[in-house]
């Protein structure tokens, strides 16, 4: 089974959610700035890397966790992934897509735009971190919901998309 957390640019929300999922970030407290900025891929993804999945790690069940930026092509990429599953005869329940962008607040959006789009990292990155810290327990809840879905999938056939 594979889990892909996706967002616009695979630089903020998907990085945070996937890091929580694989245990790189705590679930019982809000992480410090240094814990966030040292995460692999945090506020690092370049525009030309959008659409490429990045491996984050394995969770406690051995499930591989990835991040993926979809920009404004979410529907096309999801359709492509669905088609690839069918072509290679992979059961849909082997891939769970998780939209992490829904957890992002305005502070993080503005920071991400300044940092990734305009290259104003010294201004944008601290804003993304403040926004993430403010919404952190929403990310924890999202990840816990996904993990519950994975545990339940061993008893049935889950949807392959978690939006």
Structure explained in plain terms:
This protein is of the alpha/beta class and 163 residues long. The protein has one domain. 44% of the residues lie in helices and 15% in strands. The chain is built from six helices and five strands; from the N terminus they run E-H-H-E-E-H-E-H-H-H-E. The protein has helices at residues 13-21, 33-37, 74-87, 106-117, 121-134, 136-153; strands spanning 2-7, 54-58, 64-69, 95-99, 161-162. Strands 2-3-1-4-5 form a five-stranded mixed β-sheet, with helices on one face. Strand 2 and strand 3 form a beta hairpin. The protein is globular. The two termini are 18 Å apart. The model has no long low-confidence stretch (mean pLDDT 91).
Number of helices: 6
Class per helix and strand makeup? alpha/beta
How do the SSEs run, as a string of H and E? EHHEEHEHHHE
Number of domains: 1
Mean pLDDT, to the nearest integer, reads 91
Q: Tell me, briefly, the overall form.
A: globular
Oligomer: single chain
Major beta sheet, specifics? 5 strands, mixed
Strand order of the largest sheet: 2-3-1-4-5
| Count of beta strands | 5
What's the short story on this structure?
This protein has 163 residues and is of the alpha/beta class. It has six helices and five strands; from the N terminus they run βααββαβαααβ.
Sum up the structure in keywords.
five-stranded mixed beta sheet, alpha/beta, about 160 residues, 5 strands, globular
Please render the helix and strand layout as text.
Blueprint (H helix, E strand, L loop, with lengths): L1 E6 L5 H9 L11 H5 L16 E5 L5 E6 L4 H14 L7 E5 L6 H12 L3 H14 L1 H18 L7 E2 L1
Parallel strand pairs: 1-3, 1-4, 4-5
Antiparallel strand pairs: 2-3
Helix pairs in contact: 1-6, 4-5
């Amino acid at each position: 089974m594979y889990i892909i957390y996706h967002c616009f640019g695979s630089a903020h929300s998907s990085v945070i959610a996937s890091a929580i999922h694989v245990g790189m970030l705590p679930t019982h407290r809000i992480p410090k700035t240094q814990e966030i900025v040292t995460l692999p891929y945090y506020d690092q993804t370049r525009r030309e890397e959008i659409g490429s999945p990045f491996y984050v790690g394995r969770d406690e069940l051995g499930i591989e966790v990835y991040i993926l930026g979809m920009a404004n092509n979410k529907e096309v990429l999801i359709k492509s992934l669905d088609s690839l599953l069918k072509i290679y005869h992979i059961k849909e329940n082997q891939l769970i897509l998780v939209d992490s962008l829904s957890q992002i607040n305005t502070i993080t959006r503005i920071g991400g735009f300044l940092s990734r789009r305009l290259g104003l990292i010294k201004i944008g990155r601290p804003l993304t971190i403040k926004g993430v810290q403010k919404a952190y327990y929403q990310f924890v809840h999202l990840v816990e919901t996904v993990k519950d879905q994975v545990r339940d999938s061993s008893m049935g056939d889950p949807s392959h998309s978690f939006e």
